[in-house]
Structures are given as C-alpha cells and as structure tokens.
Amino acid sequence: xxxxxxxxxxxxxxxxxxxxxxxxxxxxxxxxxxxxxxxxxxxxxxxxxxxxxxxxxxxxxxxxxxxxxxxxxxxxxxxxxxxxxxxxxxxxxxxxxxxxxxxxxxxxxxxxxxxxxxxxxxxxxxxxxxxxxxxxxxxxxxxxxxxx
Length: 148
Prior knowledge:
Blueprint: H1 9-21, E1 26-29, E2 34-37, H2 40-46, E3 53-59, E4 63-69, E5 80-83, H3 88-101
Antiparallel strand pairs: 1-2, 2-3, 3-4, 4-5
Helix pairs in contact: 1-3, 2-3
C-alpha cells in the first residue's frame, strides 16, 4: 500500500518540528510522506528489519497513518491508523509512543514492572515477584495488612 494523498507543506513542516523536538530524526519529509529514522532499539520495539524507517502519511479515508518501509519510500506493506487528530503535537506524541512501546495509542501502553529481588533484610515468608516494591493491599507478604 502506498500512502499517497498530499499533505500541506506548512503542516508537514510543523509535524516534522514537533517530532524533532521529541528527539527523533526525520530522514525525509514531503507532501506524500514523512520518514523517521529507527535506531536499533526502536526497530526492535516495532519488530522492524534493519534499515527500515517509520513512514507517516495521510489518507482521506483513514486520516493519519503509519507503516514500516524497508526501502525508505512511502511504500509500506500495511498502513495502520496512528491518530485521528491531525494536530502536529498529537502526531508527535503518537510517534513517541510508537518508538518507545510499539503502539501509537496511549490507552494501549502497557505497564511494566521493574525487575527486583528481595533484599537480605526481607523477612517475608515467600519472595514475591515484585520483590516487595509494589504495596498491593492483597499481597500476603507485602500488602497493607503486613505493613510493607
């Protein structure tokens, strides 16, 4: 699928500026597509092959779309909806979430628990997966009932 609907030049410049303010590198930007460079971490998060770029485009039917391109063009295998908001800051925020967690929608960002181990001072009966750092009131060892 090719993202081909033309985007206004001034709007493209505003989107590029918003993305770059968040620290991402825009490789190319024109009326057909904006391509954003993927580092190795971002490629891994998105499940992209080495050398792929993130492509942002606009179609009248779907709005703001994104996809991955191996050849750096506006041709992507599968375009996906990024955001319904065509505001540059909203698009930059969606790019940020894509690069960090692989999803453009804030509601789909999963919570991650840090890896932790129980300290030598821990006197709990069992070692919990959270290592005692999450004060869950229902936890038999670390919950509010046992004064974590």
